[in-house]
Amino acid sequence: MEEQDLLDRATRGDRTALSQLLQQHYEFVYKYMLKITLNPALAEDLTQDTMIRCIEKIKLYNAKSKFSSWLITIATRLMIDQARRRKREKKWLEQQQAGALRQMKWHAESQNEAWPDVLNTLAELPEESRIPVILKHYYGYTYEEIGQILAIAEGTVKSRVHNALKQLRKELV
Fold it and tell me: What is the Cβ-side half-sphere exposure of residue 82, based on CA atoms within 13 angstroms?
């Protein structure tokens, strides 16, 4: 069946025609999202979200552009919205962490406890570096155990710990 015929039927509410259209374009949208995000899981999620949005908005399709272009527009807008959301969430999380750090410092000072400079510097490390260092040097986990906890390769753990310690030394000297 021709794409235009499927589109006409889908915009009139034919779910079978819409299903065929989405099946025909799914891989196209997924490959586009994969090239844009460079993240297979995110590309899959955004492709599925695109298909859902298409199902919800198919009656608004006006055939002024190709159906594939309409899908790409939806996918791109969803990806931009996702990036904005992640940026806001990251900013919020950073603010929460900064507040928690200030609270921990205040608590330590109010109890007349020392607040080592290393904790300030450790707090400035990115989470992906800070967690392995804490697990290794504060809790004594092996590189293998840390790799299992974080679901990353043992070599990656070693590299992150090494680079984080190098950065800590540089900051503390």
Answer: 16
Q: What pLDDT score was predicted for residue 49? A: 97
CATH number of the domain where residue 138 is located: 1.10.10.10
- Using DSSP's 3-state secondary structure scheme, residue 13 falls into coil
d(CA 26, CA 22): 6
Within 8 A by CB and 6+ apart from 136, the residues are 143, 146, 157, 161
Mean pLDDT of 75-83: 92
Are 86 and 130 in the same domain? no
CB contact at 8 A, 132 and 157: yes
Closest CA to 30 of 47, 55, 45: 47
The encoded tokens of residue 51 equal 């298909």
Residue 133 has a CB neighbour count (10 Å cut-off) of 21
pTM of the model: 0.55
